[in-house]
């Protein structure tokens, strides 16, 4: 890229300028010389439920996209890096493991867990609870977001099968300080 004066500006200079003004994302795979990734700060996790797919009855049930804000803190110990949700809304399903923990695996933050799926079959019909296994992958993107897929496999009952849903995490940045003219 060239400036108006014809001086060549490299991508390194642009990145350095972004970091200097504090606009760099809080999620990364770490600098080129570091082996420890980090997922820190407040993120809005969006689940694209309206476009979910899979073999389960639950994959065909209409549902809107939904999101919630969560605070992540990561640490690395003995070569394993884990990002833990340290603040955010509690899930409605009491069988979900708390707090959620994401392990760094092959360039993505991965959350694997066992729980009970509460199969909804319509208003007034009791839910059927069945064992389920989920894995969610969040891969850091160059713009500071993370994108991936959340797959759940439900074992038995009317919702037997899989549910696949795209997911994303967007950094929640605090508002810029305003001018105080008083």
Key attributes of the depicted protein:
disordered N terminus, 182 residues, eight-stranded antiparallel beta barrel, mainly beta, Secreted protein, single chain, signal, two-stranded antiparallel sheet, 8% helix, 10 strands
- Give me the secondary-structure category: mainly beta
Low-pLDDT segments, ≥5 res: 1-26, 28-33
Major sheet details: 8 strands, antiparallel, barrel
- Side by side, the strands of the main sheet go 3-4-5-6-7-8-9-10
* Secondary-structure element order, N to C: HEEEHEEEEEEE
Q: What number is the mean pLDDT?
A: 83
Protein name: Secreted protein
Keywords: Signal
Description:
- The relative contact order is 0.19.
- The chain has 182 residues and is mostly beta strands.
- It contains 2 helices and 10 strands.
- It has one domain.
Write the layout of secondary structure elements.
Elements: H1 11-20, E1 27-28, E2 38-39, E3 41-47, H2 57-60, E4 66-77, E5 80-87, E6 101-105, E7 108-119, E8 128-140, E9 146-154, E10 161-171
Antiparallel strand pairs: 1-2, 3-4, 3-10, 4-5, 5-6, 6-7, 7-8, 8-9, 9-10
Signal peptide: 1-34
Organism: Gordonia westfalica
Keywords: Signal
Quick structural overview:
Keywords: Signal. The chain has 182 residues and is mainly beta.
């Amino acid at each position: 890229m060239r400036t108006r004066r014809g001086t060549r500006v490299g991508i390194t200079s642009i990145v350095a300028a972004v970091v200097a003004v504090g606009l760099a994302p809080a999620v990364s795979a770490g600098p080129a010389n570091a082996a420890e990734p980090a997922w820190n700060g407040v993120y809005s996790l969006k689940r694209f439920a309206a476009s979910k797919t899979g073999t389960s009855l639950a994959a065909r049930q209409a549902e809107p996209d939904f999101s919630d804000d969560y605070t992540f803190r990561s640490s690395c110990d003995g070569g394993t890096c884990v990002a833990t949700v340290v603040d955010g809304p509690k899930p409605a399903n009491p069988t979900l493991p708390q707090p959620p923990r994401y392990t760094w695996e092959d360039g993505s933050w991965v959350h694997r867990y066992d729980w009970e799926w509460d199969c909804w079959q319509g208003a007034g019909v009791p839910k059927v609870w069945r064992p389920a296994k989920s894995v969610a992958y969040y891969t850091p993107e160059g713009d500071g977001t993370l994108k991936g897929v959340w797959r759940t496999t439900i074992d038995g009952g009317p919702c037997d099968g899989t549910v696949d849903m795209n997911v994303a995490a967007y950094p929640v940045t605090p508002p810029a300080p305003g001018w105080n003219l008083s």
